[in-house]
Each structure stands twice: as C-alpha cells, then as structure tokens.
Amino acid sequence: MLTDPYGDEQLVELYDGDNEPRDDHAYYRALADRVAAATAADRGGATTIVDLGCGTGLLTRALAAVPGRRVIGVDPSPTMLGFARRQPGADAVTWIDGDASALAADGQADLVISSGNAMMHVEDLPATLTRLAAALRPGGVISFESRNPAVRAWEQWTTGVTERETPFGPLREWMEVTAVDQGRVTFDAYNVFEDGRQEVYTSVLFFRDAEQLAGALEASGFGEIELLGGWHDEPLTAESRLIVVRARTEPR
Ligand SMILES: C[S@@+](CC[C@H](N)C(=O)[O-])C[C@H]1O[C@@H](n2cnc3c(N)ncnc32)[C@H](O)[C@@H]1O
C-alpha cells in the first residue's frame, strides 16, 4: 500500500514556501467571486464552496476570508489537514478528513474547486466526479487543473541530488520516475535531512488528455464543459502545460 506522500510534518511545513501561489490562486479566487455574484443574484444567501484536496489550505483560507461564504476543505492527508487547521483564518473553514466520498451528497454546493493538480491523485475520476456532482446544486460549477500529457512533464522529473537550506537544516532532495504506463506515472521523492533521516515517498499521478477528462465529466453528469490551456482562458494546444477544466452540473 502507498503511504501518504504528504505525510512528513517537516516537509508539509515547507510546502507553501515551495509552492507559492501564482496565477492559479488568482484564477480560482476570481471564479469564486463570479460564482458568488451569480449565486447572490439568483438565490441570495451564502455561497458554498468545496476545495477538494485542499492540502495546507492556503487557497481555502483565502476563499473563506470573503464574507458571505461557507467554505469546506477536504483532504485525505491528516498531516496536510492538521497543518491547515493550525493556520490563521482556519476557523472560517469546515475541514473534512477524507476524499470526495466524505462530502454530503446534498446538492448544496455552488462551486467545487481542486487546485495544485490534486485531481491527478485520483485514480477513479468518474467515481470522484459523480460524488462531486451530488454535492453540487443543479447548475453548480466545478473547476480544476490537470497536467497535459502531451507535454510529457514526467520526462523532466528524474533529477540529480540538490541541496538547500531549510528551517530544519540542510535538505538533500531528488526524484526518480519509476514507471510510466498509459498516463499513470509513478515516482519516488527522496528527502534526506541533516541528521541522516531519509523520507522516501512514492506517488502515483494520472495524466489525462482532453478526451479522457471530457468523457469522465460527461459520464458523471456534467455539461457546459470547457477545457482551456491556462489560467487566462488560453485555448488548449498540444503545448499547453495544463488543462484547466470548467463544467456545470446539469440544471434541473
Ligand atoms: C499537490 S497537493 C495540492 C494541495 C492544494 N490544493 C494546493 O493547491 O496547494 C495535492 C493534495 O491532494 C490530496 N489528495 C491525494 N489524493 C486525493 C484524493 N483521492 N482526493 C482528494 N485529494 C487527494 C493530497 O493529500 C494533497 O494534499
């Protein structure tokens, strides 16, 4: 069985510094603003937003800092979620340990997002999307990003050893891709701390092309599917690093 690739307390402490928000957070925040404005116009009342695979919760807490929102952060990693729960502003979020199956199928959410390629950890995408569709209201919006397999990013992932300073002392790191099988990419991330402690985490990521993503969305009850090539609605091409997905549950 795979261990949690986000299971080390010290590496989780380093996560936000290593993954500084860029256009991705701006995109998801602007989308939340648009959905909240439409929700207020249509129905009044609070907007409910689910952040699946919320990790350390940096984006989740930013979304919850806007008044008039109910924000739910879901993540299966107890270490990531434990860190998220300890951060300033965490009280404004409802944190749920688990994956999409832990969400109530109550058709209440206005928006589901999943950032940081978290959806690539999901093996059975239609099953997860079906859960998310059940959590969303009719006409609710889903958005997430997924790396474009055409760019074959994994070919750059096997690296030599690098060393850097961290608050926990020098850290030596490297990665090794161990298997590539039809978009299923397995890699080991090595982390060696100053005292010799070595943490090796095996991750599996599922690269899906536009056809696979659209097929999974359609099979799960989503329509109005948009597959874009970046955070500014660029058209999707073979060179696009990311596929940015937006869709809606069918209106009743
Ligand atoms: C690269 S992190 C992204 C975290 C955060 N969304 C961000 O943008 O920084 C991927 C996250 O996906 C979570 N994850 C792994 N498998 C998952 C699953 N089946 N469902 C939901 N989240 C999952 C991990 O625990 C991890 O916190």
From TrEMBL:
Cross-referenced Gene3D superfamilies = Vaccinia Virus protein VP39
Listed A to Z, the keywords are:
Methyltransferase, Transferase
GO biological process terms held by the UniProt record:
methylation
Q: Which domain of life is it from?
A: Bacteria
Q: Which residues form a coiled coil?
A: none
Q: Does the keyword Methyltransferase apply?
A: yes
Keyword Lipid biosynthesis (UniProt): no
Gene Ontology molecular function: methyltransferase activity
Pfam families recorded:
Methyltransf_25
Task: Give residue ranges for domain Methyltransferase.
Answer: 49-140
Quote the protein name from its UniProt record.
Answer: SAM-dependent methyltransferase
Q: Name the species this protein comes from.
A: Kribbella italica
